[in-house]
UniProtKB/TrEMBL annotation:
Annotated SUPFAM superfamilies: C-terminal effector domain of the bipartite response regulators, CheY-like
Keywords: DNA-binding, Phosphoprotein, Transcription, Transcription regulation
Biological processes, Gene Ontology terms: phosphorelay signal transduction system; regulation of DNA-templated transcription
Protein name: DNA-binding NarL/FixJ family response regulator
Annotated ranges, domain Response regulatory: 3-118
Gene3D superfamilies the UniProt entry points to: 3.40.50.2300
Length: 217
């Protein structure tokens, strides 16, 4: 059973999420919180598999709450937002969220996303993340990081990371680099391990921050 902590400052939204998740058969709502501060405390107490986190809340917003929860290492976080180009979303991805969904996401897609996050996967496609990051690079809001952060990678791993940052799947990367999918999967795994990243979404963020990926490339 996947245990989920639902965090939203609107009670009606929390009720709706609970109804959808309770009907899934394999997801249990372990608790509910109305702001980020409550979410941090409950995540520590309940140790849910996934925290379904609103980003705009009083007392403590979802970005800071996400960072605290991810740092504690107790749970993975999936953020919910009204607008897919919300600057809060970018900040939440930087803070370690495993992805984001729009609040009007169909129920089946929400359930599928939570299952993916619980398995350790990122739910937002790198392509969607790239569109978000393109916007923030253009507005100068992405804080650059020293490219030396990538020094641990081999030349081939850098090449694979650049393709991941384009939003390409393992199949697409394999085709372009004339490699097997298994080899690409191995490279991606090594990239995540060497750079201490949770998933492909975090890899895309880092590629933009270090300048390996740029808008339109």
């Amino acid at each position: 059973m996947i245990r989920v902590l639902v965090v939203d400052d609107q009670e009606l939204m929390r009720v709706g999420f609970r109804m959808v998740l309770d009907a899934s058969g394999d997801i249990e709502v372990a608790g509910e919180a109305g702001n980020g501060e409550e979410a941090v405390h409950l995540a520590e107490q309940l140790n849910p598999d996934v925290v379904l986190m609103d980003v705009r809340m009083p007392v403590l917003d979802g970005v800071e709450a996400t960072q605290r929860i991810v740092t504690a290492g107790s749970s993975r976080v999936l953020v919910m937002t009204t607008f897919d180009l919300d600057e809060y979303v970018y900040s939440a991805l930087q803070a370690g969220a495993s992805g984001f969904l729009l609040k009007d996401t169909p129920p089946d897609d929400l359930v599928s996303a939570l299952r993916s996050v619980a398995r350790g996967d990122a739910v937002v496609s790198p392509a969607v993340t790239r569109r978000l990051l393109d916007r923030f690079v253009d507005t100068g809001r992405i804080a650059p990081r020293d490219a030396s952060a990538l020094d641990a990678l081999t030349e081939r791993e850098r090449e694979v990371l650049a393709h991941v940052a384009k939003g390409q799947s393992n199949t697409e990367i394999a085709r372009e680099l004339f490699l097997s999918e298994a080899t690409v999967k191995t490279h991606v795994g090594r990239i995540l391990t060497k750079l201490d990243l949770r998933d492909r979404v975090q890899a895309v963020v880092l590629a933009y921050e270090t300048g390996l990926a740029r808008p339109g490339t």
